[in-house]
Amino acid sequence: MAKEMLLCAFDMNCVSHQSQGLWRHPRDHSEQFNTMKYWQDLARTLERGLFDGIFLADVTGVYDVFGGSPDTALRAATQVPTNDPFSIVPVMASVTENLCFGVTGSIPYEPPYSFARRISTLDHLTSGRMGWNIVTGYLDSAAKGIGQPKKEAHDTRYDIAHEYMQVVYGLWEQSWEDGAVLRDRKSGVFTDPAKVHPVNHDGKYFKLNAIHLCEPSPQRTPVLFQAGSSPKGQAFAGEHAECVFIGGHNAGRHAKSVASLRAQASAHGRDPDDLKIFGAITVIVARTDAEAKEKLADYKKYGSQEGALALLSGWTGIDFSSLDMDATVEQVESDAIQSALMAHGGATVREWAEDLTVGGAGPIITGSPQTIADKLQRWFEESGLDGFNLAYTVMPESIEDFVDLVIPELQQRGAFKRSYHPGSFREKLFDRQPRLQEPHPGAGYRL
C-alpha cells in the first residue's frame, strides 16, 4: 500500500502570516483573527478535510530590521498585531475531536516551569492532541522585550535549547510516576505523595527544584516539532524532534533536507522513520488550470512588497531598505533564520519580495484539482517527505478550496486518508503508544 501523505495547515494568530498584503483582498477575512468564530470555523473546515493538524507559527518581537524601525511591519500587518498561539487551542479543540495542534513556543521567552504546566494543561483539555514547535528565537526586538540588549548567538541559542529540554523532560516524564493519582474517595487520598518527585536541575542556563504542577497528561510530553535547518538546528532535530518542518522551493532541495535530517536521527541512534518531515507549500486551486492562473494573478494585485521586505529583513537580519531592488543577495553570514538565505540564494531583492507577497517561505503550485494532485504526488514521491504544511493566502477561501477540491481528488487516488486514525496526536502520526518511546532521549527520564 502506498504511503499516505500527511497534511497540516500552516497558520499564525495574526492578520498577515506569510502572504504579505493579501489581507486587503475583498474576500479575505483574516482581520477577524481576534474572534473565536474565525478559529472555530477554520478548525471545523480542517477537520472536515481530515487535516492531521494545524501548525501555529509564532514570533516574539516585531520586525524592525527593515529601515531600523517597526513602522513598515505595523503599516503592512507583517505578523503584527499578533496574539498568543496557545490561547486559541481550546477554542478550536472545543469544536473538533481529531484535529491536532502543533504550537510554536520560543525557548528564550518561556520559563520551563510555567511552560511545562501550560502544555500539560492543553494536552489534558485536548485529550492528547498537543504538539510543540521548539524554536530558539531570531529577533533582537524580542530579546529587548525581556531586558536583554540583543538575542544570544545562533549556536548558543541551541545550547540553551538542549538544556531547556532536560528540564521539561524531567517535569513531564519524571516528576509524577504512573499511578500517582489515586482519586480514592473512600480514603480521601487524591495523590500518593510517595510517587511525586521534585525535579532538581542546576545547569548553566536554568536552575529548578520543584515538582511539576500537573498530573500526567495523555501524552506527557507533547509531539515535538522543530524547524531549524542550520547544522545546529538539524542536529537538534535529529536528537529531539518527532516532526520537522522544512522550507525549499523544489522537490530536489526538499530531498536533500530530508536525507540530511534522517541521517541526523540515525546518528543519534534513532530510526530515521521516527521523523515525520513536512514541506512548506502554497496551493492555488480552481475548477480549471486557467481559472487557477487567473486567481493567482488576482491575488498578486494585493501583495505588499514592502511588507514582504520587512519580513525578509527580520528573517535574515539584513536591512533590505538599503539595497537596490535589482541587487542580487548572495549567501551571507546571518544570526537569524539561516534557511531564508539558503532558500533564496542568487535571487534579486525584487524576486524575494514577490515570492513573499503570495506563498511565503514555500513554493506555489497552481491548477485544477487534478493538476494539483499530480504535482503534490510527484513532489511527495521525489522528495521523500511525509507530508506538507499548507500555507494560506486569502482566508478562508484558500483552505476551503483545498478541502473541497483537492482532498477528494487525493482520496480517490489513495494518496490521502478517508478517516482519522484514533488516539492522541502521537498515536495518529506513528500508530504507537501516546508516550515517547526509547531511544528518544525524553523517554530516558521515565522512572
SSE layout and pairing:
Elements: E1 6-12, H1 36-48, E2 53-57, H2 71-76, H3 89-93, E3 100-106, H4 112-125, E4 130-135, H5 140-145, H6 154-174, E5 181-184, E6 189-191, E7 199-202, E8 207-210, E9 223-226, H7 231-240, E10 243-246, H8 251-267, E11 276-285, H9 289-300, H10 305-316, H11 338-343, H12 349-357, E12 364-367, H13 369-383, E13 387-391, H14 397-412, H15 425-430
Parallel strand pairs: 1-2, 1-13, 2-3, 3-4, 4-9, 9-10, 10-11, 11-12, 11-13
Antiparallel strand pairs: 5-6, 7-8
Helix pairs in contact: 4-6, 6-7, 7-8, 8-13, 10-12, 13-14
Describe this structure in words.
The structure is a single chain. The longest helix is centred in the middle third of the chain and has 21 residues, at 154-174. This protein has one domain (6-445): Alpha-Beta Barrel (TIM Barrel). 38% of the residues lie in helices and 15% in strands. It is of the alpha/beta class. Strand 3 (100-106), helix 4 and strand 4 form a beta-alpha-beta unit. It has helices at 36-48, 71-76, 89-93, 112-125, 140-145, 154-174, 231-240, 251-267, 289-300, 305-316, 338-343, 349-357, 369-383, 397-412, 425-430; strands at 6-12, 53-57, 100-106, 130-135, 181-184, 189-191, 199-202, 207-210, 223-226, 243-246, 276-285, 364-367, 387-391.
Helix content: 25-40%
Number of helices: 15
Under CATH, the homologous superfamily reads: Luciferase-like domain
Taken in chain order, the helices and strands follow as EHEHHEHEHHEEEEEHEHEHHHHEHEHH
Q: Give the count of structural domains.
A: 1
Query: What is the residue-averaged pLDDT?
Result: 93
Main beta sheet strand tally, sense and closure: 8 strands, parallel, barrel
